[in-house]
Amino acid sequence: MQRLREALASLGVQTLAFEFEYLQTMRREGRRRPPPRVERLVDELSLWCDSVSHRDLPPPWWGGKSMGGRVASMLAAQAPQRTSPAGLVLCGYPFHPPGKPERLRLAHWPSLACPTLVVQGSRDPFGTREQVDGYALPEVARVHWLEEGDHDWIPRRATGRDQAALIDEGAAAIAAFMSESS
Q1: At how many degrees (to 10) do helices 2-10 and 163-181 cross?
Q2: Is 0.85 surpassed by the pTM of this model?
Q3: CA-based nearest residue to 15, from 51, 53, 63, 74
Q4: Over 70: is that where the pLDDT of 81 sits?
């Protein structure tokens, strides 16, 4: 995510980073732990968004990588009009758990009202191109495919591309989407 934030900054897109409390604890303790229930993460993100919002500025865009994007989209789907984001950027969205494509995580998507961009590796085990192309996503949503990318936007070696190239492509797609949606 740091590399993506740097690429976005080079394109004039300012970002703020947020780290969930359980991730901070994992880093501090040096051991892995499961995340809390997604509803708790939505509440945590909501408090953070409230703390950085300013009434006299236009609403910010929200986004995140994987579960962070899922949480941001769930919060946007329940946000009242006055607190909703200008748009969403969801990187490596977890459309379903790996190997369980029948367990879709899209129940809240019909409630999304803001421009939404998903930047997804075409080989992402949380939602491949073939799977996602069959979903009925809302009109506000668009998917930008990073060909041969996995969940972390790492392509197969045979493509001759690397993760940095896919991150740069993703950043360019995000900046263009935000510009055209503003």
Answers
A1: 50
A2: yes
A3: 63
A4: no
pLDDT for residue 70 is more than 90: yes
The Cα–Cα gap between 25 and 86 comes to 31
pLDDT for 149-168, tens place per residue? 999 999 999 999 999 999 99
What's the Rg (C-alpha) of the chain?
16
Across 31-35, 101-105, 114-118, 168-172, least confident range: 31-35
Secondary structure (3-state) at 155: strand
CA distance linking residue 95 with residue 76, whole number of Å: 16
Crossing angle of helices 38-52/67-78, nearest 10°?
70
The CATH class, in words, for 2-181 is alpha beta
For residues 82 and 50, what is the distance between their CA atoms, to the nearest angstrom? Answer: 12
**Residue 138 is which amino acid?**
P
- What does DSSP assign to residue 59? P
Separation of alpha carbons 99 and 96, rounded Å: 8
- Structural domain spans, the chain: 2-181
**Strands 116-121 vs 141-146: parallel, antiparallel or unpaired:** parallel
Picking from 105, 90, 111, the residue whose alpha carbon sits closest to that of residue 174 is: 90
Position 73 confidence tier, pLDDT thresholds 50, 70, 90: very high
Place of tokens 């192309």: 133
